[in-house]
Amino acid sequence: MDEIERVHEVLEYKEKIVVAQIAPALRVSIGEEFGFPVGKILTKKFVGALKQAGFQKVFDTSVAADVVTVEEGIEFISRLEKKENLPLFTSCCPGSMAFIENKHSELVYHFCTVKSPQQTMGALIKTYYAKKMNIPQEKIFVVSIMPCAVKKFESRRPEMDFNGIHHVDAVLTTKDIAVLLKNLKIDLNNVKENDFDSLLENASGAGQIFGVTGGVSESLLRFVSHKLEPEKKKIEFKKLRGKEGRREIELSIAGKKLKIAIVHGLQNLNNLILDKNEFDSFQVIEMMACPGGCIGGGGQPVSTPEIREKRIQALRKIDSKEKVRVSSDNPEVKELYKSFLKNPGSETAKELLHTRRICFKCD
Length: 363
Ligand code: SF4
Fold this sequence. Notes:
Blueprint: H1 3-13, E1 17-22, H2 43-53, E2 57-60, H3 61-82, E3 88-89, H4 94-103, H5 117-133, E4 140-146, H6 150-155, E5 170-173, H7 174-183, H8 205-208, H9 215-228, E6 246-253, E7 256-264, H10 266-274, H11 276-280, E8 284-288, H12 305-321, H13 331-341, H14 347-353
Parallel strand pairs: 1-2, 1-4, 3-8, 4-5, 7-8
Antiparallel strand pairs: 6-7
Helix pairs in contact: 1-7, 3-5, 3-9
Bound molecules: iron/sulfur cluster.
């Protein structure tokens, strides 16, 4: 049975509470499967379609991206102070991580230890949300809806489980969910709009730009600026944006000079790693396997550079219009820390949201 049939069956049998999480990139690409113009923002219609399909709750993975930003930001500041394991590799792209594990396994210690937004959201649904709602976690079936087939592999990695429980039970790509909706005769053109469900509902602009190249770094730097130079609280890091497969930026935050590389495409990543002197000069490397970042993911509708640019502009537009644009300012993230995680990097956060990166060759 393939993953689409499996999810269809779980929705039909109604034995579990079936919960969906939607990655940021899909809100600007799912419409292409239903004849909408490229780059059309369809967040609410997409949530409405999933509700019509029988998903009881629909959460926004971008809220988890906000949490990842806070955890990653604290880890980055600590590494910067101790001058250890730099450059930090961002950790949300399992495609890039698998590439490094297989081709450059000596570098796995540069990975940020925070799980990806998909795994973070799965963990929060089965612990924080389950506890608040008084639902046994084994009753919940989490379906991730992602731009990426590699997320299927990521969700099955043993170090992503906690106490033997998978945080994500099934992963559907953009193309998979379009097939499922069409099988159920649900057309995005005719569905009622709906909001994400509460507790994990409202993401900041920073959480939503995780879907584009440069977005993860920009989200991280917004947080770092707010933390280290609260009098400035810089939001716009326009130098991080762009199309080139490898971009290098130097900037200064609170007197600390930072050199950041943004790479998309595995060949570009490989070239940067092979240039040892260059590699050692960076403090952060944002790595995305797909062109343009997740908006150009392998599970997305087929794209050209022009299509990817329209999707990028659409996610950037969402960010520019959000009232909250820094992850740590998100009231839902503040509440999550206050009532559950306590502090960034706390024991609970480490247990649920961080992982030791396993190197297939060394372990
Ligand atoms: S960049 Fe590509 S491989 Fe990496 S997480 Fe995004 S869609 Fe998946």
